[in-house]
Fold each of these.
Amino acid sequence: MHIHRYERWWMMFGIAMLIVFLAIIGVEAIVDNMNPPSGLRAIDPTRVAQTPPFDHPGLRNLSPGRYEAYYIAQVFSFNPSSITLPVGSTVTFYVTSPDVVHGFYIARTDVNMMAVPGWVNSDTHTFTRGGTYLLICHEYCGAGHQNMFAKIEVR
Ligand SMILES: [Cu+2]
């Protein structure tokens, strides 16, 4: 079979690029210890309501201006449905799900996670501006998905 010289160069270029990209991914994964986001803390999804700290979901004040918020995302609500924070608070959000995959997106912020059964996901945000922030599920989870939201009041 005859392959034109340019065709052969183009195939060599494609194979070389594939090797370069795979090498970059391999080096990043091993040398820089890069892993897929989240999924670092496991939880039994059938026992979320009995597993601390998700047995008492809500806001914890660690120190002045520092908070942790534990959320359970479930069909079709977030628990807690509302929290109130002072302006300037830094909050680490922890979220898990006992049923199906949900989204955890706080509008007007960069907090954007997935709530995956069996895993605890987390993200930290500092609320520098006051107002009412809408926490929404942005991962279709069933017939009541459009009603799945919560509020974060920052005053
Ligand atoms: Cu949803």
Amino acid sequence: MPFHDITGHERPIASIKAALSHGRLAHAYLFHGEAHIGKALTAMRLAQALNCERPYPADDQDSCGLCRSCVQILARTHPDFVVIEPDQELAVPQIKIEQVRDLEQQFIYRPLMGERKICLIDDADRLTIGAANALLKTLEEPPGHGLFILISSRPQALPITIRSRCQSLRFSPPAHTQIEAALILKRELPPSDTHFLTLFTEGRIGEALTLDLEALRARQRECLDLVAPATLTSITNILTSAESLAKADRGVEVLTWLRRWIRDLVIVLVGGDREYLLHLDQMEQLHRYAQQADVGSLLDLLNEIERTEQQATRHLNVHMALETILLRLRDALGLAQTGAPA
Ligand SMILES: [Zn+2]
């Protein structure tokens, strides 16, 4: 059951199960791939499979998900399942050498309850140099009962010495159809919402399953108000909106929404696949704008917004940038000359 409730990742899971059934599990793994797609969940399922108290059929290397061991691993209270993650209190979250030293101490001893001691190191690319060196020593002479699973969305930031000690398993975002199916099953949402969440999170199923949909829809409405003719045909309204958003420190967030909306409009303009539209429920408005919008100007604007988003952390005047972008959007949509589209 437990491996089965993971969305996607058929390949890495098959490879883990094959290793389990042949007794050829490596001592250290590196699960890498984009953030929030299910790497840590898979690692936890592997820990459950290794320490499950109920025997599972030989043809299906999986845990029951219900026994004391499985439940404790899920709750992170199992004495043989250790999770190390960056200290989020720090300005730059890091895994410190003390955390790795504690881990070494714990791994000297045999497992207390289960078959294996398992250590999950989340965001392993956040190890300090000292911590990475300490971990390397452990990985060079791993205790026979130990399994280390390193998780990273930036594996290239890990020292090559560490990477070379781990068996690498690449995780890719699950297909959109798989995420939509999981959302229907687990969040019981209607198709329009599952489509919206899937596109918004771009395959990050962990986010899709947990994001506050109502809050997200509220943000979307705000963006739609901003691109409504009532706002864009009036320079006063543009300036007022830009000012209040910048004052609320929401400029960058709104730019991201604008980028997504413009991207949708371009897809409609070039007759692209509707499946890729975040604002699929806004087809009427998108089609109306598509009648008089200029693709070239919109593409330029998309580049401009991306540049602004990248520079926004560096003292950029987001208020000014937002104003300029909204005025350029007004031009690109043909609203400056003709007013609202018919
Ligand atoms: Zn179990």
